[in-house]
Amino acid sequence: MNKVQLTQSVQKTVTGIPGFDFIADGGMPAGRTALVAGSAGSGKTIFAAQFLAEGIRQLDERGVFVTFEERPEDIRRNMMSFGWDIGNWEAEKSWAFVDVSPEPSHEVAEVGDYDFGALLARIEHAVRSIGAKRVVLDSIGAIFGHFSNKKRVRHELFRIASALKDLEVTAVLTGERTDQYGEIARHGIEEFVADGVIILRNILEEEKRRRTIEILKFRGTTHRKGEYPFTVIPQEGIIVIPLSAIELKQRSGDVRVTSGNEPLDRMCGGGLFRDSIILVSGATGTGKTLLVTHFIDGGAAADERCLLFAFEESREQLGRNAIGWGTDFDRLEEEGKLRVVCEYPEAASLEDHLIHVKQQIEDFKPNRIAVDSLSALERIATVRGFREFVLGITSFIKHQEIIGLFTATTPSLTGGMSVTESHISSITDSIILLRYVELFGAMRRGITVLKMRGSTHEKEIRELVIDGQGMHIGGRFRNVTGILAGNPRQVGAEELEKLDQLFPE
Amino acid sequence: MAKYLLKLYIAGQTARTQQAIANLRSICDTDLSGQFELAVIDVLERPQLAENEKILATPTLVKELPPPLRRVVGDLSDRDAVLVGLDLAVWDKKDQARK
Question: Among A33, A306, A346, A501, which one is most buried in terms of CB atoms within 10 A?
Answer without folding.
Answer: A306
